[in-house]
Amino acid sequence: MNGKKVLDSYALLAYLNKEKGYDKVKSLLSSEKAVLLMNDINIGEAFYVISRNRGFEKAEYFVNTILKSLPLSTVGNTFHEVLEAGLRHKSGFPGLLFFLGHVIVDINLQYKEALWKR
Q1: What is the pTM of this model?
Q2: Which one of 11, 65, 84, 87 is least enclosed by Cβ atoms within 10 Å?
Q3: Half-sphere exposure of 44 (CA within 13 A, CB side)
């Protein structure tokens, strides 16, 4: 399997739990020609699911041991990108992103100002 492939939390969890799709993910992970990418948010989602289902220690083991042993490159996000993706996916109103970004910045500034006044 050549080229870049992106794994999401569902694919990684299927691999870890040997569920449906396990063989395909295993094949990708063992391929020397495929470049595998995984987004930080999906890694966090996998961490959450493992923690919820198996406990926090197993989730930490996943991040500190298993994940590091896999041939994956992680792709990060800025806060702005996370908001934009969430708004486009969930709300159907991408124009709200600009407004929400300013509201969040304004709330953070007000909070910091309140702390300085104490």
Answers
A1: 0.66
A2: 65
A3: 7
